[in-house]
């Protein structure tokens, strides 16, 4: 802040294609320019600044003249995913998070494998909590859902079943929504994120829509990420439903909800065990003993393969960027004008 003595700290509360909304206090929101100074000077329009280096909802920035961002303050946490497309890019979902609420409905939306994928991708973004909404839904079986997520819960991840429309039921989330904390809601469309937000707010602020009767799939009602102050003093970030959940290549499988399988894999006879038909495979032995589900192991192997492929793509991108940076440096010259060595 010493470089910008006249600047004021503000938090990004909304991010749009046309710019940002920032706030210095609850209920305050001011539009600022779409391309801040530090990106304009760095050549963002030429693609030299990665998208994840732009400010996102939850970031703290320095603003001068009430409308001009001059710097971004360091992040203490972030959640992100790999963007769709052939070229490696990251998409930042939210920054400076304390709790990640992974929301899934107790209707046909319920999918333990998708929840595991979310838990892998949101690591490093705060404490994960699985929130099973629609506990009041006809046919909802919260007990069976908890059993299906038993291996996740055994790793210390809280699993809560709530009726998102009932304030008394939603009060189960209050321990993770203390004054000064920030939580983010992630989950598929129709899982009940906006309904949950409205109940926590005590007003109908977020637009909601019923899921389709044919398959319980949701309709996109949240179109952008927004940070919302809650009456209890916490901040909540609602996000649009995400169809693609691709690893960035930076994930740690043990930290991302698979510590039990990683521990088993360490006891396999062969270090490069694929956990298929190899002798002495501790993972297969756990499956045969009934202490680990084959579906969870299959999901672990799939996510590990995706993570490793993303790691390789990320390394290629970094190598290409470093090469481009070196080639753009000016060639040193002797005093007489002749080119010298780099």
UniProtKB/TrEMBL annotation:
Residues 89-245 form the CP-type G domain. The lineage of its organism: Bacteria, Pseudomonadati, Pseudomonadota, Gammaproteobacteria, Lysobacterales. One of several proteins that assist in the late maturation steps of the functional core of the 30S ribosomal subunit. Helps release RbfA from mature subunits. May play a role in the assembly of ribosomal proteins into the subunit. Circularly permuted GTPase that catalyzes slow GTP hydrolysis, GTPase activity is stimulated by the 30S ribosomal subunit. Zn(2+) binds at residues 268, 273, 275, 281. It is found in: Cytoplasm. Belongs to the TRAFAC class YlqF/YawG GTPase family. RsgA subfamily. Its cofactor is Zn(2+). One of its GO terms (molecular function) is metal ion binding. Its EC number is 3.6.1.-. GO terms for biological process: ribosomal small subunit biogenesis. CDD domains: YjeQ_EngC. It comes from Luteimonas deserti. InterPro entries: G_CP_dom, P-loop_NTPase, Ribosome_biogen_GTPase_RsgA, RsgA_GTPase_dom. Keywords: Cytoplasm, GTP-binding, Hydrolase, Metal-binding, Nucleotide-binding, Ribosome biogenesis, RNA-binding, rRNA-binding, Zinc. This is Small ribosomal subunit biogenesis GTPase RsgA. Binds 1 zinc ion per subunit. Residues 95-243 form the EngC GTPase domain.
